[in-house]
Amino acid sequence: MLVHELMTSPPVTAPPSLPLPDAAHLMRSRGIRRLPVVDGTTLVGIVTDRDLREALPSRVSTLSPWEATTRLAAVSVADVMRRSVLTTTPDAEARDAASTMLSHRVGALPVIDEAGQVIGIISVTDVLREYARPPEVSA
After folding, report:
1. Domain residues of the chain, as ranges?
2. How far apart are the first and last CA of the chain?
3. C-alpha to C-alpha distance for 89 and 53, rounded to whole angstroms
4. pLDDT tens sequence across 20-50
5. Could you tell me the pTM of the whole model?
């Protein structure tokens, strides 16, 4: 089985300039935990729900809610994204993508085409969904 058979496409992406509260809202509203960051069509990073949680002010803070919200709005995805991103290609074996995710302890890989554009994303959930799918009954 190949990556393109399991990946989610088109992927939800974000520009580096997207404010963190907007990124958090986008991820919540789409039910996703990872957001590839693209500058034009070039992958420049990835931000995860964990990155966002770590960037949020702690519950024990001397800032008022208004101050915390104002400061957070000034932080962009580019400020917290991971710039080193593991990727895969649509024609790679899904087993190899799963092995990469497992060995590097990441939950998903952006899928890039030969031009370097993000065309999808494959996650651990995508792989598990295929593994758990009931076998087709032949007539």
Report:
1. 3-132
2. 23
3. 29
4. 889 989 999 999 999 999 998 899 999 998 8
5. 0.83
CA distances from 54 to 110, 130, 135 (A): 22, 32, 41
Residue 84's φ and ψ, nearest 5 degrees, are -90, 110
Q: Hunting for tokens 């009931």 — which residue is that?
A: 134
Alpha-carbon distance 23 to 52, whole Å? 8
> Cβ–Cβ contacts within 10 Å for residue 9, how many?
12
Q: What is the dihedral of CA 106, 111, 112, 113, to 10 degrees?
A: 150
Domain 3-132 sits in CATH at 3.10.580.10
**Contact 27/33 with Cβ under 8 angstroms?**
yes
Task: Give the integer Cα–Cα distance in Å for 109 and 129.
Answer: 16
What is the rounded distance in angstroms from the CA atom of residue 88 to the CA atom of residue 108?
Answer: 10
Nearest to 39 by CA among 20, 15, 13, 11: 15
